[in-house]
Amino acid sequence: MPTDTFTWKNKITALLQTQYPIIQAPMFGVATPQMVAAAGEIGVLGTLPLGDLPASKCIELIRATKQLTDRPFAVNVFLNPLPERTAELKKQYTRTKKYLEDFAKQVDLEVKLADYEQVVYTDYRDQVDAIIAEGCKIVSFTFGVFDEATIAKMKQHNIILIGTCTAVAEARVLEQKGIDLICVQGIEAGGHQGTFLTETLPEIGGLSLLAQVKDAVKTPLIYAGGLYNASTIVAIKALGAQGFAIGSLLMGSEESNLAEFEKEALRQAKESDLVLTKSFSGRYARGLSNTFTNQLDHSDYILPYPFQNKLTIGLRIAAKTNKNPEFSSLWTGQSRGPYSGASIKVILSQLIQEVETYKP
Ligand SMILES: Cc1cc2nc3c(=O)[nH]c(=O)nc-3n(C[C@H](O)[C@H](O)[C@H](O)COP(=O)(O)O)c2cc1C
Same domain, yes or no, for 162 and 217? Predict the structure, then answer.
């Protein structure tokens, strides 16, 4: 594609009111209010990840972000189904907790894991009320889709909705529910896969998925998974995406919440260290394999999401405190860049310039 024909302005920039159709991808645990604000400063859409945080914490983070920027930004929430609390689940939880405590002891990691009764859920409706009250205008989501009443409520407040799909069938559901933009997440992506129609992962590569979703729906598409340089962006544009979500490329940045030892572990890792693992959360996520993933993925000590996720929080905190990457969840995608420690303003401005001067 001749470079002088690369245009950034499109339906997505018009809708999101940004200079570029580039999205700093939601990255729970990594993306900070500082990262979101920095993205806005260079005309990119920042995304504040709220995961399944309680409404009070969502408000705190939204306000902290608003203190730093006047630019539009998105917030992102998790819509996973909540498993029924049964006697069997409690038994499995207690058994897995004991197993993890023993495992941590063997490696001299002092952990404080939550008891079953301490595991609390956040209802996304409470998060949505907080998001509306705080005046947020762009909401992205993963692991599911909002119920119709919640969609109607957000639309009454002129909120733009961005849903995540990992299969063509999921894209169709999002379009049918009137979601404004669809983020197509290839299997290359770092972090959790947003799959919501099936228990098993579709595992569809970005090229196959994006082309087929483009054929199946009319909703404008954002693509996420493996974007790290000019050629990946140009290729994805040719396949029909109008928006580009960038995750892993920003993980080493100045605004990333990762500790220095975690950034260093990412920089040192080899391609063969990448794995799709359920070990930390009970849902598939892409990241680095380590002692923890190797042992757990070959065990029957994996609870359904979000129980595994809540149970391993204490372990991940201990790993961070002890600077132990063997028990940290180090999510990253298949396109692994240098994990530059520069500001995301520098990383993304260089990327934009590279695209604008790209010669195939
Ligand atoms: C550390 C990390 C955390 C993530 N957390 C979220 C999240 O909170 N919500 C979400 O929708 N996606 C999340 N993702 C997925 C990203 O938004 C995005 O799909 C992915 O990073 C794109 O692939 P790439 O990493 O190859 O750029 C996360 C990804 C990473 C690497």
Answer: yes
